[in-house]
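Thanks for the sequence, V.! I ran Endoribonuclease YbeY right away. Repeating your input here for the record:
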Amino acid sequence: MITIEPPSSISISALSKAGLTRFLNRARGGVGLEGEVDVLLADDSTLKRLNQAFRGKNKPTDVLSFPAPDEISQSHAGDLAVSLETAARQAAAYGHDLRDEVRILLLHGLLHLSGFDHETDDGEMAAREAELRRELRLPTTLIERVHDPKAKKRRTQVRTAPSKRGRRV
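Predicted structure:
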């Protein structure tokens, strides 16, 4: 299920629950997750509260992943939270629309839910993310933007970082 709590500063006309749900299901299948995934699309202040509560970091972030306990992972893979405000800034910086940025963040979070961790896996997550990005017809992925000097930003400097359970992804 996707819950959208849009900030008043962001136009979400390009985002539809049905379209994002279709993408989420395709990406979930590509990643190999069996269980359902709940997604919250919210504002920076919500992600800041979650980031503080689960990571001890008092700042907003773009996406957080919360893997489900093993006992229920067959039916529920976990939860993702995405900041629409941060996504909008990153979309502008990388020259694509909000819908594509939200999809990039969802894919990245799904990979974390499936157990990938690009801080420790010697490039396995980056390779899988790039492969799925091409299959799902997405612009440059989060990991590629951080590690590929050719993936230039148009406007603001945006920093992304990896995540584990309940951490920024």
